[in-house]
Amino acid sequence: MSENKNLIEGATGSWEIVMGLEIHAQVASNAKLFSGAPTEFGAEQNSQVSLVDAALPGMLPVINEECVQQAVRTGLGLGAEIHLRSVFDRKNYFYPDLPQGYQISQFKDPIVGEGEIEIDLKDGSVKRVGIERLHLEQDAGKSVHDQHPSMSFVDLNRSGVALMEIVSKPDMRCAEEAQAYVKKIRSILRYLGTCDGNMEEGSLRADVNVSVRRPGEDLGTRCEIKNVNSIRFIGQAIEYEARRQIDVLEDGGSIDQETRLFDPRAGETRSMRSKEEAHDYRYFPDPDLLPLVIKQELVDKLRDELPELPDEKKARFVREYGLSPYDAGVLVSEKASCDFFEAVADGRDPKLAANWVTGEFFGALNKAGLQIESSPVSAKQLGDLIELISDDTISGRIAKEVFEIMFETGDDPAKIVEEKGLRQVTDLGAIEAAIDEIIAANPDKVEQAKEKPKMVGWFVGQVMKSTGGKANPKSVNELLAEKLGL
Amino acid sequence: MTELTKLTLAEARTKLAAKEITSVELTEAHLAAAKASDKLNAYVTLTPEVALEMAAASDARIAKGEAGPLEGLPLGVKDLFCTNGVRTTACSNILDDFTPTYESTVTANLWADGAVMLGKLNNDEFAMGSSNETSRFGPCVNPWKASDSDANLVPGGSSGGSSAAVAAHLALGATATDTGGSIRQPASFTGTVGMKPTYGRCSRWGTVAFASSLDQAGPITRSVRDAAIMLKSMAGHDEKDTTSVDIDVPDYEAAFTGDIRGLKIGIPKEYRVEGMSDEIEKLWTQGIAWLKSAGAEIVDVSLPHTKYALPAYYIVAPAEASSNLARYDGVRYGLRVHGDDITDMYEKTRAEGFGDEVRRRVLIGTYVLSAGYYDAYYIKAQKIRTLIAQDFKQAYEKVDLLLTPTAPSPAFAIGEKVNDPLSMYLNDVFTVPVNLAGLPGISLPAGLSSNGLPLGLQLIGRTFDEETLLRAAGVLEEAAGFSAEPSIWWTEA
C-alpha cells in the first residue's frame, strides 16, 4: 500500500482516516421494483401507490425486469462481476413508512459482485477504489411530521421505488477521495442512464463509514453516517467525524460502533443509535420471489449496448481531439457538459470547442448560477459561433462580445453579428487604408518602431480601434510588418 | 336438506345445463340452508344479494347459451380469499371490517367461469390452527356428531368453515387453502373431499398469506369429480404471482378413466406412527386392499425424514408468518388501537388484533429468524425440507402415488385440544410433509370410526400430476362407496 499523504495531525501524533461508502442510487425506471406504480418525482402525496406498495393483504411482488437490467448495466459500468443468480431477502423491521413491515433487499446473494473504478484527484493523480457489491432493494415511503399537531402522515409515493445500493471497499483515506468517489459513481450512473444522480431530490444518497487509526495499524471501530445528501456535506461530515474520533481516542476514550446523522446546519454528526440499539433485521429469503436468474446472453447484450463511459471518453478526447488530460477530465466529469461539448465540437475544431466550453461558457454559467440544462445558449448556437471564428467571419475577441449578447438574449450568433455589424474586415484594401492613415499621422511612432519592433503592438491597437475591432488581426499584422519594414 | 342441496356440483351442473333447474333456485336453496345453520357457524359473512344477482346473471347466460364451466353453481369462499366489496377478515380482529377493492385470482377465476358466491366461510385466524377454534368469530362446528356423545366437534382446520359448509350441504363446494393440511384434515373430519394441488398450481394473489412457500388454494367438495371440476377453474398461471407455474391446466375430468391397473402405489412405512389407533390402521389396510383389487401394485417405500417434517414445518411456517403478518400494524387499514406513540400503537393494535395462536406463531417465527438462532433453526429446517423433498423424489422413482391416512384421529370435541398446542399440531403429521415438498394431495372419505365419525385417506401425487392423483382417488372413492351423511341437528330450535 502506498504511503498516505493525507494524515491528520492530532495532539499525540498522526492519524489516518479509513472510509468506505454505501451509495443508494434510485434506479431510473418508469415503474417501481416490484409493482407497476410510477416513480416520477414531485407527484401529489400518495398518488403513485399500488396495492402492492401499500402492502394490502394478499398482494405479491413481481420483479420489474427493467430495474434488473439497469442494475446489470451499472454493474458492467463499474467493471464488476455480474451474478447470474441472486436472491431477494426480507429485511424485517417496523416503521410506519414501511408498509410490508419488511424491505425487500438482497443480503447474501447480490446481483453484482466485486468491481473497481478510478477516481481523479485534484493533484492530477488517479486512485483505484474497489467496489464490494451492488444490490437491488426497495425504498421506503416518507413520514411527514409537520402537518398535524399530534399525528404523523405517511406518503407512500417512494414506497417500493427501486434502489441500487453500491458498497465500496474501505479504500478511501480523505474527504477529497470520498467526494471524488461519489462524483465518479454519479458520473458513471448518469452516462449509463441508470440513475439521474440528483442528490437534491434524493435520487442519490450516501452512507459514509468512517474510522481512524494510527498509520499501519489495524482498522479502528467505525461509525456510519447515514443519508448524507450532498457532496459538500460528505466532505464536512467526514472532516467533523474524523476529528471527533481522534479527539475521543486521544482523550483515552474508545469509539462506539454506532449510526450517526450529519446535521448540515450545525456542521456536526450526532449519535442516532448504538450497536446495542441496532435492529435485528431477521433477514431471510423472500418466499414470494423465486431466485433471480439472468441469462449470460442478456449480460452480453447489455455489455455490447453500453454507452462510452467517462474514462473511455476522456482517453478518446485526449487521443482524437488533442485535448489536455485536464480539459478532457473537466469535460467528461459531468455527462451533461460532455454531451454539450460533443454537440458543440461535432464537425468543428474540437480544441477551439473545448476552450470555449470550459472557458467562456462554463464561466458564464457559473457567474449566472445556472445549470447546463437551463443555459440560454444552446450547443448548436455555441457551435455556430465557433464556425464564425473558424471561417474568419469574426475574430476571437469579437466572438467574446457576441457570446455575451447571446447569453443575455439567447439570439443566434449570425443574427447578432449581422445586426451589430461585427463582421470581420478581411478586405485588405480597407485595412491598408486604415494603416496608411495611422502611419501618416504618427511619423514619430514609425521611427520608434524601427528602433523597437515591439511598438508594432501600438499600431495594431490603433488599427483595431479605427476599424471598430473588426479588422482581421492576422491581416493587420502582416500588412503592418510590410509597411513598417520590420 | 332439499332436493337441490342434495346434488353434487357435477349433478347440479347437468341439471342447469338441461334447464331442469335454475341457478336462482339452486342458489336460494343453498342460501336458505346457510341461513338455517347458525349453530354450525360456518358462514361468517353471507352475501345473499351478491349471490342472487350472480345467479340471475348465470341464468341469463345459460338462456343465451353462453354458460361457463361453473355456470350458476353456488360456492362458499374461505374468508382468507379477498373478495371485492365483501368484507375479508382472515377471521382475525386485526383486519376489522377490511373490505378489499380487489378480487383474489382464484375467486376471480371461479366467477369468470360462472360460479355464484354464497358468502365467506369461517377458518382459523390467518389459517393458523387445525380445529377452526382460533377464529375471531368463534369456533365452527362439525355437522357430524359421534354416536356416543352429543358434544360439538371441531370440523378440522384451518378450513373448517369450508369443510362444515360442504358436509352440511350449505354450498356445492368451497374454496379452501392448505399450508400444512388445512384442506385435507378438515375434509377427513367432515366426510368430504379436500384437494391440495401442487404448490404453484393456483395463484396466491389476493389470498391472505400465512406461509408463502407453503400456502396453496384448493377445493373442498362432496366428490372427487367435483374437486376436479372446481380445481380446473381455480388453477392456472398468474403473472401477478411469480411462484405460480406456467403450465397448461389439463381437463382434470378426463382423468377419470376408472382404470388404475398397473399403477404403483407406495405405502410409506414411516407413516405407521406410534400410538396410531387401530381403526386408522384398519382403514389404511382397507384402502390398500381396495386399490390392489382395482389392479394397482402396492409397493412398500420409505420416507426416512418424515419424523422431522413437523418440527421443520413449525419453524418454516411461523418464520414466514411472522414476516407476512408484519403489515398488520394499524397504520393503513384494519384495526387501530391508539397509543402514546407509534410503538405503543403497534403494540396495542397487535395485542388486541391477534389471538393467542397467531401471537404464539409470530413469536416463534421471530425467534427462529433472530440473529444467533437463524442457522440453528431456520437454515436447519430448510435443509430438512430439502431432505423431505428428496425422500419423495426417491419414492416416486419406484411408485406413482402414495397412500396414507389423512389424520391420526377422527374429529375431536371443541375445547379438547385448544390448550395443548403440541397435541393440536400432531393433527397435521401426515399432511405437513406434502406441503414441505410442494406435492399435490387429496383426502377422501373412506370409512367411519367406531363411534360413527368419518375418516379420510390421503393420496399423494407427483408434482403437477394431479391427473393420476384424481384418477386413483376416483377409483378409491368408488371402492369405498362412502355415503354416510351427518344427521341434521343444527336446524332445530
What does this structure look like?
The complex is a heterodimer of chains A (486) and B (493). Chain A is α+β, with helices and mostly antiparallel strands. Chain A folds into three domains: 8-300, no CATH class; 308-420, no CATH class; 428-483, Orthogonal Bundle (Arc Repressor Mutant, subunit A). Chain A is 39% helix and 19% strand. In chain A, the strands form four sheets. In chain A, strands 1, 2, 6, 7, 10, 11, 12, 13 and 14 form a nine-stranded mixed beta sheet that branches. In chain A, strands 5-4-15 form a three-stranded antiparallel beta sheet, with no helix packed on it. In chain A, strands 3-16 form a two-stranded antiparallel ribbon. In chain A, a hairpin with a 4-residue loop joins strand 13 and strand 14. The relative contact order of chain A is 0.10. The model of chain A has no long low-confidence stretch (mean pLDDT 92). Chain B has 493 residues and is of the alpha/beta class. Chain B has a domain at 3-262 and 399-480: Alpha-Beta Complex (Amidase signature (AS) enzymes), CATH 3.90.1300.10. In chain B, 37% of the residues lie in helices and 12% in strands. Chain B has 16 helices and eleven strands. An eight-stranded mixed beta sheet of chain B has the order 4-6-5-10-11-9-7-8, with helices on both faces. Chain B has a three-stranded mixed beta sheet with strand order 1-3-2, with helices on both faces. In chain B, helix 10 packs across helix 13. Chain B is globular, with a radius of gyration of 21 Å. The model of chain B has no long low-confidence stretch (mean pLDDT 97). The interface between A and B is large, with 29 and 43 residues.
**What helical percentage do the residues of chain A reach?**
25-40%
> Would you count the extended β strands of chain A for me?
16
**Name given to the CATH architecture of the domain at 3-262 and 399-480 in chain B:** Alpha-Beta Complex
Radius of gyration of chain B: 21 Å
